[in-house]
Amino acid sequence: NKYLIEDGERPDQIALKLYGDPGLDWIIRMVGEITNMPNDWPLSSQQLYDYCVEKYNGEVGMNRVRYYQTTEVKDNEGRTILPARLAVDENFTIPDPDRQHQGNIINPTEPVTNYAYETNLNEDKRELYVLKKGYIGQFLNDMRDITTYGFNSEFVDPKTLRVANTRVTNP
Question: Which of 9, 65, 123, 168 sits a CA distance of 20 to 30 A from 92?
Fold first, then answer.
């Protein structure tokens, strides 16, 4: 299943909403492949604004054009001639596909500011894969089986293994 993360929502809140237990937030992060919260989790609107102001040295830098992208262009029959969101030069042009304007050249571009760029990256993080509630029990059992220590030369008890302390050095 996919879940759309709301502005400012945290993994524990999603776990409570979906599974009834905020302590299962680790399942939200594991299934959603969130390995680094600051980089993989979407920022709230205010956090994103503050981040951009700091990264681009104020609102002027934040609102500078980063690049240009295409707008969608369709022909008279509704077929897509040029998809939206392709990075192009500012002066990018194509022949007008409208038969009434044959021979005209159009510039189907729009500027993308640094803030819009960062917003797009942030919004792409909002869609998250989650585990269906019906599978939680089986998932927890499987994780328990996978993480239980088996018998080997370092075995002490089912929850403890003997390891060498590599930080200890001889004088």
Answer: 123
pLDDT: is 119 or 99 the higher one?
Answer: 119
**SS3 state at 86:** coil
Alpha-carbon distances, residue 83 vs 74, 75, 76 (angstroms): 9, 12, 15
90: Cα separation from own chain's centroid: 28
DSSP tally for the chain: helices H, then strands E:
7, 11
Q: How many angstroms separate the CA atoms of 94 and 104, rounded?
A: 9
CA dihedral for 16, 17, 20, 25, sign (positive or negative): negative
One-letter amino acid identity for 161? L
Query: pTM of the full predicted structure?
Result: 0.75
What amino acid is encoded at 36 in this protein? Answer: N
Rounding to the nearest 10 degrees, give the CA dihedral for residues 46, 49, 55, 61: -160
